[in-house]
């Protein structure tokens, strides 16, 4: 059975909106688009590239698909080659012109279609796509959460768990990995059931 991985870049206050650029997602008059750029370094780059061999499908929200489809088909290199050759599934409620090779729209029965991806692919990765991530978190439709947490706070913007979380327990799958500019990579696996309680 395959796994659904969620890959997100987030601030310490768990804002994950528009890390890559000013025009990525300006919704809500968000003025910090591109907040990740000054904090990038080779270690994080190597961590991202290290994910590539296992990825055999992408699951993307509509906005992230549009950004990726405008960029990656015109690039070369390990990440571009991987993204261009594997299937891409795009969660959308409307009609969508998908001109990136290997892209397919899903969404009529999003939960059922996402569950079916586990039977087709070993590692389906959701990159960015924060609105879609909210649904996956709420429906527990993921197996692993990979968070790159950066040492800044923004105080505004869409957050990882805003409106999307249900009570869940996760297990840290490996020790945290750090980068020279202070990013920390945390890999969590979703556990069955809900969090326990006790007396301290």
TrEMBL record:
Bacterial bifunctional deaminase-reductase C-terminal domain ranges (all copies): 4-171
Name of one Pfam family that matches: RibD_C
GO biological process, one term: riboflavin biosynthetic process
Coiled coil: none
Family matches, as InterPro entries: DHFR-like_dom_sf, RibDG_C
GO MF annotations in UniProt: 5-amino-6-(5-phosphoribosylamino)uracil reductase activity
Domain of life per record: Bacteria
Protein name: Deaminase
């Amino acid at each position: 059975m395959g796994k659904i991985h969620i890959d997100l870049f987030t601030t310490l206050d768990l804002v994950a909106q528009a890390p890559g650029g000013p025009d990525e997602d300006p919704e809500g008059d968000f003025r910090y688009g591109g907040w990740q750029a000054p904090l990038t370094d080779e270690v994080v780059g190597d961590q991202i590239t290290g994910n590539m061999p296992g990825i055999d499908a992408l699951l993307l929200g509509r906005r992230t698909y549009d950004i990726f489809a405008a960029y990656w088909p015109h690039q070369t290199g390990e990440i571009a080659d991987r993204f261009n050759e594997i299937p891409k599934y795009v969660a959308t409620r409307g009609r969508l012109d998908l001109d990136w090779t290997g892209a397919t729209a899903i969404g009529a029965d999003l939960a059922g279609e996402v569950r079916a991806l586990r039977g087709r692919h070993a590692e389906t990765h959701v990159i960015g796509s924060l609105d879609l991530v909210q649904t996956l978190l709420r429906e527990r439709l993921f197996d692993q959460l990979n968070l790159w947490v950066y040492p800044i706070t923004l105080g505004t913007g869409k957050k990882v768990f805003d409106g999307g979380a249900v009570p869940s327990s996760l297990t840290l799958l490996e020790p945290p990995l750090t980068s020279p500019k202070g990013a920390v990579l945390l890999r969590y696996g979703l556990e069955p059931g809900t969090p326990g309680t006790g007396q301290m």
